[in-house]
Every structure is written in structure tokens, then in C-alpha cells.
Specification:
single chain; about 325 residues; Helix Hairpins; Rossmann fold; 3 domains; six-stranded parallel β-sheet; four-stranded antiparallel β-sheet; 10 strands; elongated
Length: about 325
């Protein structure tokens, strides 16, 4: 039984005893005393404060029997409530509930964030990269050991639950999310979550991890924007290390060094941006923003490597740049 259910049962039981006591006294004395007097008598009897009788219980056999039964059962429920609350405090569960409620409030305020389903061997470094790039990120995980591995990551929000449950995705703000990355160990679960995520948000970008490459077409049909196979990527990595080691070393240093936050990133020019219609050279990306322009992708899908500075910036154009993550974030927020 969950903590919330135990608290609800406890509160309900206490209210039931109080209402039963108040109603019982009112009935025994045939409405002679007001409800507030009956309620007062019930409270002082249950709490044993010793203020004396406010109703004529002594000498009234039915009232005496009722009072004894009320105190016996009522005190039992109160003692159970005290022990339950003490256990919650000692076990830290109450603070966990408060922390979880605070986190859910933070999640409800997010917009255009990223959701990661699964915090295992793939999920942990993936989340680290998102957080390092200053992207608002939510992890969905129900394995305590996996959660413990990711708790030390700064600015990470957590939803404890099963990603295959619709409500869990809704709790993570799937309807307002920019993207979701599914790194579950089971391809069947990944397929199901992919389909559910697409149903809940038609515009979200979905990246699905698969073990069996034969499922790629099904994953795309289910709604995945892109499908990633770690086995395939691992093979390409091994080939690259063999034939272009210096390039691989450069990229590794860029991603893994602790001395800086250099990254290659893409920046989408939104509708209504002040740079639309200007030449790329007019942006002075290197001088003003410390960014190196590597390429561009037009709305039509055409990609240009090292585009000319005379190229006109268009709405929905994507600029591929290299620079410090903080400089990239500032430029993206500005344009």
C-alpha cells in the first residue's frame, strides 16, 4: 500500500470516529445538546484531556457504554495514527512525499523539455549530456538502483513510475515536451511507449533505442522520428577509430574533457526572428558569439556545409555551429 493511501485511510478513519462520536451523543440525548457540544465531548474524550463532562454522561447508562466504546476504539485509531506518522518521519517517507510534490510542481511549469525513459547504461550518459547542454530534462524510471545512479546529476527532474503507463508519461509533461528518448531494455516496451508518446503528442520528436535492427521499420511506423541501434553505432565507431583515429580523438576530447563544454549543436531560426532576411555573415557569429558555423539546413531539407556568408537566413533554417554550450544557449535564446 502506498504512503498516500495509508494517509488517506488514516485521515478517513479519524474523521469517521469523530463523526460517529458526535452523532452518537446527539442521538443518545435526543437532540437536547447542540452538535458543537457533542463534537466537543467527543474530542475531549478521545484526547483524554480531562476537562470534565459537558454532557450528562454519568448516570446515563447508554451514554456511559457509548463513551467507553468510543474511547476504546478511538484511542486505538489515534495511537495507530501517531505510530504511522512517526514511522513516516523516521523512514524519511514523508520528506520523500514532500520532495516529490515539489518536483511535480516544477515539472508542471516546464515547456519544450526532454523526457528520457530509462536510466540504465545508455540513459545515464545520455542524461548527463542533456543536462550539460543546459536542456531541461526529466527521467522516467521505476528501478531504485537506476534512480540512485542518476540522483547526483544536477537539475535533473525525476518521475518514478513505469514508462509504459500513460499516466506516467502525462506526469512527465509529455503533451508539452519537445522530445522523448526511449532507452528501455525491452524492444517491445520501447515500441509500446513510442506509439503511446506519438498518440499523446503529435509533434514531439521521438528517439527510440532498439536491440533488434529488424524492428526499425515497425518503430518508425509506430511514430519514432529516429531509431538508434547501439550495435550498429558501435560497429561504425570501431571502423572510424581504425581509419580516422585523429578525428575520433578530437571528437572524444570535445565530448569528454572536463576542462570545457565545447559542443557541436544545431540552432533553429524561429518564425519572427529578427535575423530573418539577413546574410549569415551579418550575424558575426564568431566575433560576437564565439561560435563557428559548420553548416546549415534549409526548411526544404537541403544541407550546406560551410555555407557562404552571403547566404540569406530564412525562417525554420537550422544553423549547425560549434562552440561552448553557454554561448550556444545564449545565441539560441536570442534568435
Amino acid at each position: 500500500m502506498s504512503i498516500r493511501q495509508r494517509l488517506n485511510i488514516l485521515i478517513g478513519a479519524i474523521l469517521l470516529v469523530v463523526l460517529t462520536g458526535s452523532g452518537g451523543y446527539y442521538f443518545i440525548f435526543h437532540g437536547k445538546h447542540s452538535i458543537i457540544d457533542c463534537l466537543y465531548m467527543t474530542i475531549i474524550s478521545l484526547t483524554s484531556v480531562g476537562y470534565g463532562e459537558v454532557l450528562e454522561v454519568t448516570g446515563n447508562v447508554p451514554a456511559q457504554i457509548f463513551t467507553m466504546v468510543l474511547i476504546t476504539f478511538g484511542m486505538g485509531i489515534i495511537l495507530y495514527g501517531i505510530s504511522t506518522l512517526t514511522a513516516l518521519l523516521i523512514e524519511g517517507e514523508l520528506s520523500g512525499i514532500l520532495r516529490k510534490n515539489k518536483m511535480y510542481k516544477q515539472i508542471s511549469k516546464l515547456n519544450q523539455h526532454y523526457i528520457v525513459c530509462g536510466g540504465g547504461q545508455t540513459g545515464r550518459p545520455l542524461i548527463e549530456e542533456l543536462v550539460k547542454n543546459k536542456e531541461p530534462t526529466i527521467l522516467i524510471e521505476n528501478d531504485e538502483s537506476m534512480i540512485d545512479q542518476c540522483k547526483d546529476l544536477p537539475d535533473l527532474l525525476l518521475v518514478e513510475g513505469d514508462a509504459t503507463e500513460d499516466q506516467t508519461l502525462i506526469d512527465a509533461g509529455i503533451e508539452k515536451a519537445r522530445g522523448i528518448i526511449i532507452t528501455l531494455p525491452s524492444d517491445k516496451d520501447t515500441l509500446y511507449v513510442t506509439m503511446t508518446a506519438r498518440m499523446l503528442n503529435k509533434n514531439i520528436r521521438i528517439i527510440s533505442r532498439i536491440v533488434d535492427p529488424r524492428l526499425e521499420k515497425k518503430m518508425i511506423m509506430a511514430g519514432a522520428s529516429s531509431v538508434v541501434s547501439p550495435n550498429f553505432i558501435g560497429a561504425m565507431r570501431m571502423a572510424s577509430v581504425m581509419i580516422r583515429p585523429a578525428t575520433v580523438d578530437f571528437l572524444d576530447q570535445m565530448l569528454r574533457t572536463k576542462d570545457g563544454d565545447l559542443r557541436i549543436h544545431d540552432i533553429r531560426i524561429s518564425e519572427g526572428s529578427g535575423v530573418i532576411g539577413k546574410k549569415i555573415g551579418d550575424l558575426n557569429m564568431r566575433e560576437k558569439h564565439g561560435l563557428v558555423l559548420l553548416g546549415s539546413k534549409a526548411k526544404t531539407g537541403e544541407i550546406k556545409f560551410n555555407p557562404s556568408f552571403d547566404k540569406i537566413v530564412e525562417a525554420e533554417m537550422v544553423l549547425i555551429v560549434m562552440g561552448d554550450v553557454s554561448d550556444i544557449a545564449k545565441f539560441r535564446d536570442k534568435y
